[in-house]
Model the fold of this input.
Amino acid sequence: MSFTESRPDEVSEAPRALGVPLAELVGITKSFGALRANDSIDLAVAPGEVHALLGENGAGKSTLTRILFGLSQPDSGEILIDGRLTRIASPADARAAGIGMVTQEFSLVGTMTVTENLMLAGVGLGRISRAAARSRVLEAAARLGVTIDADAVVETLSVGERQRVEIVKALFHNCRLLILDEPTAVLVPQDVEILFDSIRRLRADGLGVIFISHKLHEVVAIADRVSILRRGRIVASLPAAGLSPRRIAALMVGAEAIIPDLAEPTEASSDPALDALSTSIGLASSDLPDAATDAPARSSGPVPAPAQTAPAQPAPAQPALRMSKLTLAGPARALLDEVSLTVRSGEIVGIAGVSGNGQTELVNVLCGVTATTSGTVHVGDADITERTVTERLAAGLGRLTEDRRGSVALSLSVAQNLVLEDLNRFRRGPFLDRRRIRAHVADLIERFDIRADPNDPIRSLSGGNMQKVLLARAIDRKPRALVASQPTRGLDVGSCEYVYSQLRALKRAGTGVLLISEDLDELLGLADRIVVIFSGRLIGEVPAHTASRQELGLLMTGHVANPVPPDERAGVTA
Amino acid sequence: MKILLRARDSRWLAPAAVVGAVLLTLLLTAGPIRLAGANPLAAYERYLVTPLMSLTGLGDVLLASTPLIFTGLAVAIAFRVGYFNIGAEGQFLVGTVAATLPALYLSELPGLIALPLALGCGALGGAAWAFLPAWLKRHARIDEVVTTLLLNPVALLLVQGLLNGPWRNSETGFPDSDRFDAGYTLPALVDGSRVHWGLVIALLLVLAVGIVLAFTPLGLRLKAAGQSPDAARFSGIPVATLKWRCALASGAIAGLGGASQVLGVQHQLTASVSNGYGYTGVVVATLGALAAGGVLLVALLLGDIAVGAQNASIVLHVPTQMGTIVSSTLLLTVVAFLAARRYRLVLRRRPPRTQAPRPRAPQPQAPRPRSTQPRGPASTLGQER
Done:
């Protein structure tokens, strides 16, 4: 494609006149294994419409946009562009159909100038004229209502400026439908304003925009239409005018649709093996999912059996894990902003939040992967802020991170991974005490029901089994505090339940558990209290037995509509 | 048809891959040998079998293998922990220089003191040559492949500079050092053989490294740090420190090899003392799967081929370079086979397990259920549990 050829507005005239949707998705279904990421999704974007896609993590937004941009293929369903059935097998097809996408990860060459980057994007047959490219950059910038220094080297630009370059790049290809995947996640507020102004200009130009965001006030501010995805289905598609953030939050987290949740416990208890497993660990297999799904309905009702003792505990137990004003500076803004939180022994504290709001950073800081900018972390009485990983483990910190495959040495065996953090415990003189290792590993495999041979390479294990290995490694040390981040992500129902039962057992044994999760059911079912993290700050705390999904949903999207009374926010500095 | 990553290795797949690689090597090199005017089968016999059939030949093989064991071990240790030391050649050379120092300036010392001194100097010299790249890697994150590699010719220039300058032979005037005194001679293992005590040192090192790698916590930490550095770091293993120490140990072993060569074989420093042993060490370590025993076996094999190539060039008039062609081809095929064994072929467009259960089964599934079954013994190996 050469630079003088394509003009977006010329082509978009016809469909606008006819009133045909710019793009229409019909019955799009896409499954990954047993998980149905998109379930017969219908979606239409009209010219000059900003269509917001909302949903929790894993609701299927990314899958849908990837399909529309040709990055993956639907199992079934059709895509119509201008009313014509169009096959989009690759991003090239998508561009040819007039679809552009800007993701959170930019695809710019840092050492080249803006013009050169755009020339790369437009490489085709014939000679590339730098002057023509340059003038088109300026033209596109004018169209967006922003100023772009066409000769600036991309590395020197701010994140907001780079995003503008990305949008200009997307517009290069005769773009009529622009997909913006969480464009505001990386931006500072001023840049968000500039972006919104650009989006409004494009809309006036007749472009369709698919806008993905978690932030309700942004959606309300910019969108014409809002479609809400939940568990792979569109649960609502409404005009944005007159929608309240509260109503959107309710739809997003499914507070009005708890019925689908009931499917899981039935599945779980129908599995005899699972029942046996649950019985062996002293749990009715139906306990947990019930608790989870009941959570929104009950106001202050009974907490599930194993947890029952906890709320009744009179005197606050000793602090197991204490964070004080943890701050982590980032390139644009603080990734963690004065996070203060105390987890007491025998308590599970949940951290709720939409992903990317500082959870990963918090876990990394606690686990000793990232150094903090300021603030302190204590396990019990020991200050572990500056300690090495080994010293942290010795101080009684247990870790279960969201990146399971990054926590195990994939090339080593199950047995080797099980003892990797405790090698000094298993030595006889200068040598590894193989006999004791074998006995220890056999014991862990038995106790934690790891379905693998000790000598299997750990990469061959399923996610659930791998998580059991990590659980075994962390729990066997009898940690004083456990940081568990997304402990059930990607696991099947049986494994989830197993992880839950282990976390509860730890709690009973007096460990303080910090549970970071995006799954509200999980948090409501397990935690004693839930704090919400938003944009690197803890912005609210609710006791789990009075928490409602609506309330959490609003907090998670940055709406402190119902500020928690100060006396209930012990331990939280917002 | 689809290529999938195997979930696990089969026990006999690795040896089978090596056998396959050897057979392929024989096939591939038959052409060049034929072109050189010899019968491939006769040539293979000369390369592999003849050197082992006589005591002299056997001694030559051991002699040729000794420096390769040192450099192979040096490279293997570094590669294990993910430090890609390509500088064993330079470290070997500086080891020879450092061992020559006491031999020239403290020439009167008795063997009991002189030999440990010279060997120690060699090891120190090698470690010193490895120090700069390791330091740059640790403190400035400069890629060690580039720095270690580029220091190799510098080391050679150092040797040549010394030999053309201060260390020029005082009798002949040739660019070789003076011959060492008797105290600086690594004695022969058996009278009348050229095989020297350097081989014993090498074998002891193989044993020590093998034990450390296989039976100690350090060995497991090294493996984790080399193969899964992020996970190792997560588990509290000081990856950077391990790399640093292994880099220096690697240099020391290569330097020790240099000392052994100059004290045991050459008895004087010459510019051609190395003969590319450091580079060959990379081959030895890679083919030997970075294991001590593997290094020993491959060093012996390459020594065998090197001696055989000499023999073949005399008897069959095949150029000696043909030996290098054979061992290089072997390297390529083994690496290719070892990489390929991690994959398996599946004769189907989509692996069956990724298909979601659906109410309406898609058409093509029913008529050809057999194609979803892995075919033949080879493809059943990679089955995940």
User: Anything to note?
Assistant: The interface with chain B takes residues 31-36, 75, 367-369, 388-390, 392-393, 399, 401, 406-412, 416, 420-421, 423-424, 426-427, 430-432, 434, 451-452, 456-457, 459-460 of chain A (CB under 8 Å).
